[in-house]
Design brief:
heterotrimer, A mainly alpha (about 290), B mainly alpha (about 290), C alpha+beta (about 375), A: about 290 residues, mainly alpha, MetI-like fold, 15 helices, about 70% helix, globular, B: about 290 residues, two-stranded antiparallel sheet, 2 strands, ABC_transpr_MalK-like (chain C)
Chain lengths: ~290, ~290, ~375
C-alpha cells in the first residue's frame, strides 16, 4: 500500500474555521497587549534616580532589585498585603460555606417557599453594588464596623453568585447517589457532609479561586470602608500611592508596588486558569 | 399520609439560613434602605427628613449629572462594540488546539484577573507625559506629545483604552466557549458541500453563536455602565468633568460631598438602567434555551 | 435472610396524574419476582415505593409481616441496586460496601468480614481498594450488588440493573444473578422491560401496564396463557399475530372442544377454546404465535402469504408478509428456508395453540389439561 500523501490527509474542521493570517494578526496584537505590562515590569527593576533623568533608561542596564527590597522596609505595603490576604481568605471561606449549604438545600431539599426564595436570590444577581453601597456604608457606621476585617469581608458574602453556582453543581450530581445513601441509612447531614460535599470539590475549587480573586481585587467597598491607612487592602494602598503620582517616591518604586500587588493573582491565575475561566464564563452565561 | 424522604419540612430551611441572613441584611435591606434614603434629606451619620422626590429633581437638574450620563453613554457606545468585535476576532483566530493558540488565549485573558488599581497604574505609566511609554514612542517618531489624561476629548478615550485592555478576556472566552459548542459534523457537512471559508463563517459559524454575541454585548453594557475605578484613578473625572461617569458622580456626591440623598437618588437611576439591561439579558438567555 | 412482601391496595399519584392504581401483590419469602412492563407503566415507581424513595399515597406495604411504608428508606431492611449503580465516586470499593454498615454502627471487625466474604462471593477481592471510576461497567455492577449483599437485607430490589451493560455481559450477569439467588435464597424483586430477563430469572412475573397489574404468573403461564391481549402482544418475540374475529359460528365445535370462529383472512377456524355466551365480539381477535405456524406444500390446504421481509435467524426463518385480505402476519419456516421476499407461500397454523381475545382484551385459552 502506498504511503498516504499530504493531500490524502483526513479532513479537519480546523481547516475551514481557522486561518493562519488571523492567527498572526492576533499574535501581533498580543505584543501590543503585553507591552504595557512589560514596560511596568522593566520600570520596577530600575533605580529611581536613573529614571528621573528619563524613562528610556529602562531599555538598558543596569537593573536593580532595590525597589523590591524597599517595599519591605519603607512602606505599609507588607501590612496591606497581609490585610488583603486575611480579607480575601476569610471572604472565600465564608462564601464557600454559605453557598455549599444553601446550594445543597436549593438543589435537594424541600421546604416551604423553596422556589420563591430561590427566585428572589437570583434577583440578587441583578443588583449592582452602587445600589446598595451607600446604605451599607451607613449600616456599618452604626455598627462601628468600618476599618475592621469582618467589615471588609462580610459584604462580599452576600453575593448570590456562589449560591447559584453551587446549586447548579449539586443538581448535576445524580439523585441516585442520595437515594443509595438513604437506603444505607445515612442521616441527612451526613449525606451532605460525607457523600455529596466531597463530590463538589471541583466546584469548591472554582468558586473558591473566583471569590479569592474578586475579594483581592475589590476596590469600591474597601475604598469607603477602610479609611485608616493600616487597614487598607493592597488594592486601596496602591490606589493611594497612585493618587500622589506626581510627588511619589519614584516611578520605579511605584512600579514595584504594582508588580508585587499583582503577584498573588498572577500565580493563582497560572495554576488555576481553567477554574477561573469556568467560573467567569459560567457566571455570565448561566 | 405516608412519609417520604422528599417531604417538605421547615427544618430543611436551616441549610439556607446562614446565607439568607447575610443576603437579607447586606443586600436586600440596604437595597430598600437606599431607596428610602433617596427620598430623604440626610447626611451619612445623622437624621433624615422625608422630602419625596426632591432628590431626584435635584439630580436631574444638575448639569454635572447630565454630563456624567452623557459621558457614560458615549463610553458604553464605543467600548462595548470594540470589546465585542475584538473578542469575536480573537476567538475566531485562536479557536484551535495548538499550544501557541492556547498560550495566546491565556495571555489575552490574563489582564482580567488584575485589580483595577494595577490596571490603571500600568496605563498611567503608558500615558503620563514625559516619561510614559507613549511619550517615548511619540518622541521617537518626532510627533508632538499628547496629554492623554489631561486633555478634554482624550481623557475618556484613554480610560476606554485601559478598560478594553482590562476587560477583553471575558468576551473572548465566552465566544470561544460558544464556538466549541458548534458540532464539528456541521463543518464536515459544509466541507462535503464545498463551502468556502467565508461562507462557512457567515452561514455556519456566526449564525450558530448569534445568541452569544447578543448576550456578550448585554453583559458588557451592564458592566461598562458601572465604569468607576478606571476613571476615578486615571483622570478623577477630569478635565472639567469630561471623563466623569455616573458611578463616579455617585461616589463624589455621597462620599466626598456627603450628600447622601442625592447620591442614592442617582444610584437608583443607574440601578433602573442596569435592571433594564439585566431583564433583556434574562429574556435573551431564556430564549437561547428554547432555540 | 428472606422475608415476605405484601403490597396492599397501593396507589400513587403525582398531582392529578395517577401512576399506580390500587395495586395488590404478595411475594413469598425467597421468591424471585420480576416486574415487567413497557416504560412508564409504573413498575419502577412501585419498586421505589417498596424502597421508600417514593411515598405511598394510599395502601400499605409489609415486609416480613412488619408494616414498612411509614419507615424511612434506611430502616426498611431492603437493599437496592440502581440502574446507574449509584456508587459513591469518592470512596473505594471497600468503603462503598462498608458505608451503610458504618451508619448502622456495625462492629468494625464484622464489617470487614462481611465485605471480604461478599467480595469473594462476587470474585472481586482484588478490586477492593479501587475507586468506581477505575472500574469497568461490569465491575461496577458487581460492586453495586456487593454493596447490597453486605447489608444482609430482607429483600433485594433491582432497578433495571442490566440495562447499562453490553449484550454479552448482560447475559452472563443474568446467569450470575440467578446463581446468586440460588445461593442466598433471598427475596428479590427485579424491574425490567426486557422479557428475556424476566423469563429467565423470575419465579413469577408481574406484568404491568398503564398503572395496573395485567397478570401475575410463572414465565410459562405468562407466555402460554396470557391473561390479556396486552400481555400476549408484549411477551414473545416476534409479537403474536392478531387476526380480527368477525363472527362466532358455534361456541362449542363438533368435537366439543371449543368454538368455531369466522376469522378475517382465515375463514372458518375450528379452535379448541371454549367461549362463554357473553363473549364480547366487537373488536375481538384471534392470536397466533409464529412458532405455531408452518409453511406447507403449494398444493396443500392453507392460507396465502405474500412475503415482504425474510428474517433469517439461523435455526429458523421468519417470514413477514400479508394475507390475501391485506392483513399482516408473521410465519415461521425452517432454518433452511429458500423463500425470498416477493414470493407467495402457503402456510397453516396449529389449531390447538390459538388464543382468543374479546373486545375488552380479556384472553381465552384452551381448557387446561386436568
Amino acid at each position: 500500500m502506498a504511503v498516504l500523501s499530504k493531500k490524502n490527509r483526513s479532513f479537519s474542521p480546523d481547516k475551514l474555521t481557522s486561518n493562519r493570517a488571523l492567527f498572526w494578526i492576533a499574535a501581533v496584537f498580543a505584543i501590543v497587549m503585553i507591552a504595557p505590562a512589560l514596560w511596568v515590569l522593566g520600570l520596577s527593576f530600575k533605580d529611581n534616580t536613573l529614571l528621573m533623568r528619563g524613562s528610556e533608561a529602562v531599555f538598558s542596564a543596569p537593573y536593580t532589585l532595590k525597589n523590591y527590597t524597599d517595599l519591605f522596609h519603607s512602606s505599609l505595603v507588607f501590612r496591606w498585603f497581609l490585610n488583603s490576604m486575611v480579607v480575601a481568605v476569610g471572604q472565600t471561606v465564608g462564601v464557600l460555606t454559605l453557598s455549599s449549604l444553601a446550594g445543597y438545600a436549593f438543589a435537594r431539599l424541600e421546604f416551604p417557599f423553596r422556589k420563591t426564595i430561590f427566585v428572589i436570590v437570583l434577583f440578587g444577581l441583578a443588583v449592582p453594588e452602587q445600589a446598595v453601597i451607600i446604605a451599607r456604608h451607613q449600616m456599618f457606621s452604626w455598627l462601628n464596623m468600618h476599618n475592621s476585617y469582618l467589615g471588609l469581608m462580610l459584604p462580599g458574602m452576600s453575593s448570590a453568585f456562589g449560591v447559584f453556582l453551587m446549586t447548579q453543581f449539586f443538581r448535576a450530581i445524580p439523585k441516585e447517589i442520595d437515594e443509595a445513601a438513604l437506603l444505607d441509612n445515612t442521616p441527612r447531614f451526613r449525606i451532605f457532609w460525607k457523600v455529596l460535599l466531597p463530590l463538589t470539590m471541583p466546584a469548591q475549587a472554582t468558586l473558591g479561586i473566583f471569590t479569592f480573586l474578586l475579594a483581592w481585587n475589590d476596590y469600591w467597598w474597601p475604598l469607603i470602608s477602610a479609611t485608616k491607612k493600616d487597614m487598607y487592602t493592597l488594592t486601596i494602598g496602591i490606589a493611594s500611592s497612585q493618587r500622589n503620582f506626581a510627588q511619589t517616591e519614584g516611578l520605579g518604586f511605584l512600579a514595584a508596588q504594582a508588580v508585587f500587588a499583582s503577584l498573588p493573582v498572577i500565580i493563582v491565575y497560572i495554576f488555576f486558569q481553567r477554574n477561573i475561566v469556568t467560573a467567569v464564563s459560567g457566571g455570565a452565561v448561566k | 399520609m405516608a412519609e417520604s424522604y422528599r417531604r417538605s419540612r421547615w427544618s430543611n430551611a436551616l441549610f439556607i439560613l446562614p446565607y439568607m441572613t447575610v443576603f437579607l441584611s447586606l443586600l436586600v435591606f440596604p437595597l430598600f434602605w437606599g431607596m428610602w434614603l433617596s427620598l430623604n434629606k440626610s447626611d451619612l451619620f445623622g437624621g433624615a427628613r422625608f422630602i419625596g422626590l426632591k432628590n431626584y429633581y435635584r439630580v436631574f437638574s444638575d448639569p454635572v449629572f447630565g454630563q456624567a450620563v452623557w459621558n457614560t453613554v458615549i463610553f458604553v457606545l464605543v467600548s462595548v462594540p470594540t470589546l465585542v468585535a475584538l473578542g469575536l476576532f480573537l476567538s475566531l483566530a485562536l479557536n484551535k488546539t495548538t499550544r501557541a493558540s492556547s498560550l495566546l488565549r491565556g495571555l489575552f485573558f490574563s489582564s482580567t484577573v488584575l485589580s483595577v488599581t494595577i490596571v490603571t497604574l500600568i496605563w498611567r505609566f503608558v500615558f503620563i507625559p514625559g516619561d510614559g511609554l507613549l511619550a517615548l514612542l511619540f518622541d521617537k517618531m518626532g510627533w508632538e506629545q499628547i496629554g492623554f489624561l489631561s486633555t478634554e476629548g482624550w481623557s475618556l478615550f484613554s480610560v476606554g483604552v485601559a478598560t478594553v485592555w482590562w476587560c477583553l478576556g471575558l468576551p473572548m472566552m465566552l465566544f470561544l466557549a460558544a464556538l466549541q459548542q458548534i458540532p464539528s459534523d456541521l463543518y464536515e457537512a459544509a466541507a462535503l458541500d464545498n463551502a468556502s471559508r467565508w461562507r462557512v463563517l457567515t452561514r455556519i459559524t456566526l449564525p450558530s453563536i448569534k445568541s452569544t454575541i447578543v448576550l456578550v454585548a448585554i453583559v458588557q453594557i451592564v458592566m461598562q455602565f458601572q465604569l468607576f475605578g478606571q476613571a476615578q484613578l486615571m483622570t478623577n473625572g477630569g478635565p472639567a468633568g469630561s471623563s466623569r461617569p455616573i458611578v463616579l458622580y455617585i461616589f463624589d456626591t455621597s462620599f466626598i460631598r456627603w450628600d447622601v440623598g442625592m447620591g442614592t437618588a442617582a444610584s437608583e437611576v443607574l440601578f433602573l438602567i442596569i435592571l433594564l439591561a439585566a431583564m433583556v439579558q434574562y429574556w435573551v438567555t431564556s430564549r437561547k434555551g428554547e432555540a | 435472610m428472606s422475608a415476605t412482601i405484601d403490597i396492599n391496595s397501593v396507589t400513587k399519584a403525582y398531582g392529578a396524574l395517577t401512576v399506580l392504581d390500587d395495586i395488590s401483590l404478595s411475594i413469598e419469602a425467597g421468591e424471585f419476582v420480576v416486574f415487567l412492563g413497557p416504560s412508564g407503566c409504573g413498575k419502577s415507581t412501585l419498586l421505589r415505593m417498596i424502597a421508600g424513595l417514593e411515598s405511598v399515597d394510599k395502601g400499605t406495604i409489609h415486609i416480613g409481616g412488619e408494616r414498612i411504608d411509614t419507615l424511612p428508606p434506611g430502616k426498611r431492611g431492603v437493599a437496592m441496586v440502581f440502574q446507574t449503580y449509584a456508587l459513591y465516586p469518592h470512596m473505594t470499593v471497600a468503603q462503598n460496601m462498608a458505608f451503610g454498615l458504618e451508619n448502622l454502627k456495625v462492629d468494625k471487625a464484622e464489617i470487614d468480614s462481611r465485605v471480604q466474604s461478599a467480595a469473594e462471593t462476587l470474585e472481586m477481592a482484588h478490586l477492593l481498594d479501587r475507586r468506581p471510576t477505575k472500574l469497568s461497567g461490569g465491575q461496577r455492577q458487581r460492586v453495586a450488588i456487593g454493596r447490597a449483599i453486605v447489608k444482609e437485607p430482607k429483600a433485594f430490589l433491582f432497578d433495571e440493573p442490566l440495562s447499562n451493560l453490553d449484550a454479552a455481559l448482560r447475559s452472563r450477569t443474568r446467569l450470575e444473578l440467578a446463581q446468586l439467588h440460588q445461593r442466598l435464597g433471598s427475596t428479590m424483586i427485579f424491574v425490567t422491560h426486557d422479557q428475556v430477563e424476566a423469563m429467565t430469572l423470575a419465579h413469577r412475573i408481574v406484568v404491568m401496564h398503564d398503572k395496573k397489574i395485567e397478570q401475575i404468573g410463572t414465565p410459562m403461564e405468562i407466555y402460554q396463557r396470557p391473561a390479556t391481549r396486552f400481555v400476549a402482544e408484549f411477551v414473545g418475540s416476534p409479537a403474536m399475530s392478531m387476526m380480527p374475529i368477525t363472527g362466532i359460528v358455534s361456541a362449542q365445535s363438533s368435537d366439543q372442544k371449543g368454538a368455531t370462529l369466522e376469522v378475517e383472512g382465515a375463514g372458518m377456524v375450528a379452535t379448541q377454546v371454549p367461549l362463554p355466551a357473553s363473549f364480547a365480539l366487537d373488536g375481538a381477535t384471534m392470536g397466533v404465535r409464529s412458532e405455531d405456524t408452518h409453511v406447507v406444500q403449494p398444493g396443500a390446504d392453507g392460507l396465502n402469504l405474500t412475503v415482504t421481509v425474510v428474517e433469517r435467524l439461523g435455526e429458523r426463518t421468519l417470514l413477514y408478509g400479508k394475507l390475501d385480505t391485506g392483513f399482516e402476519m408473521i410465519v415461521e419456516d425452517s432454518g433452511r428456508s429458500t423463500v425470498r421476499a416477493g414470493e407467495t407461500v402457503k402456510f397453516d397454523f396449529d389449531r390447538s395453540a390459538l388464543h382468543v381475545f374479546d373486545g375488552t382484551g380479556r384472553a381465552y385459552h384452551m381448557a387446561e389439561e386436568a
